[in-house]
Amino acid sequence: MGQVIVITSGKGGVGKTTTTANIGTGLALLKHRKVVMIDADIGLRNLDVVMGLENRIVYDLVDVVQGVCRLKQALIRDKRFENLYLLPAAQTKDKNAVSPEQMKNLCEQLREDFDYVLVDCPAGIEQGFKNAIAGADKAIIVTTPEVSAVRDADRVIGLLEAEGLNEPQLIINRIRPDMVKRGDMMDIDDIIDILAIDLLGVIPEDERIVISTNRGEPAVADENSKAGQAYRNIARRLEGENIPIMSLDVEPTLMERIKMLFGLRSRR
Amino acid sequence: MSQKTVVIKGTKDGISIILRRHSDFNTIKNSIFEKLQKGGEFFRGGQARLLVKEGYISQEEMEQLEMMLKEFGLNLKKDPPLYTVPYPNPPQPETLVLKKTLRSGQRISYSGNVVIVGDANPGSEIIAKGDILVFGALQGMAHAGADGDVNSIVAAYRLQPTQLRIADVISRPPEGKNIIPQVPEIARLKDGVIIIEPLCLP
Fold it and tell me: Which of A73, A168, A190, A249 could form a disulfide with A177 if both were Cys (CB 3.0 to 4.6 A apart)?
């Protein structure tokens, strides 16, 4: 029996889809886990594009739920990474095409065959969000070091608790060490202070993410990408490995600062 | 023979002769003759209608019947049409012409041909029972011959689809290559495989 993890944020554009793609790929690549990623963003699907699998879609989540096809027919196997599958969203329907009960059933079916079922949640807290979290037994919150994103993350954590999804884990995305150093950006511990949940990882701002997203190749497979390294660490942490939060910059002052924060050595 | 070849019924505006042509014309003619003769002078001055339920009556045979009915003093009414012939050509599928840009998430599904005067962006879907023509860049999904017509085609000014489907064959552009076509192209089925060729004008 695998676990169902929803990746959510409340605010849009903080990197839910990128995170889903990279964690999913990371788990399949590094840990040889059998992973399926579900794009729950019906009507605004993106995960297929980020994964570079858009042109292989024949059936989608809505087709499965409505019984147009069997679940196995809609799953797209990623040929580059063994054990990695995608269940794409429909683009021509809307969120109301699926009910939370149907999503729950779908997740139950998938967890029979997979070690990880990752659900990429749409932005917002409406129907799409309710669908995405329906079948989950664990949540990962993605936020960026911005007041608005943190505020929305806080709201979502409250909503998750109301649904019985306790102890979500946090990923802070797109952090810029130079700005943090100047005091122009929220610090990791500022965010942790507000949200008071476990930190799963910190992803530095990395222009390679833009390149890899546009190419449809997850950055986690790119050895030279700092963000990719951070995602590799997150995949390992999800598997129970004890890996310290990596240093975000080569500048010694910041390294010291982070070491001070976590009392750990950096650079795995 | 379960049903009689000739049935004569009286109606308020004359008589109706209902024909089921199971046998040759002379038998029918004789049958009508016999029935009318039994009536003697009863039918004189009346109106008659001919309904052909099965088979058909040629123009020549019709004239013979008309002559015979005249002898009994019956006038054959020719309208409404006495018999109908199925329309020889089934109607051709109609064509839907759209002058707009088809955007992501928009889906056109039509029971004939589809012509888009504009672009079909990635994430859009065109599904047609007939052919698909795009006077612009086709970057979305296109499914021609959705009912299984293997002779359907997809043609576009710039054919760069995410996925192409003709009848029940699915294909997608080759992996890793982003080829931008410089000429209009046409996709069709050949030996069960979708092939793409430049759309050459003679």
Answer: A249
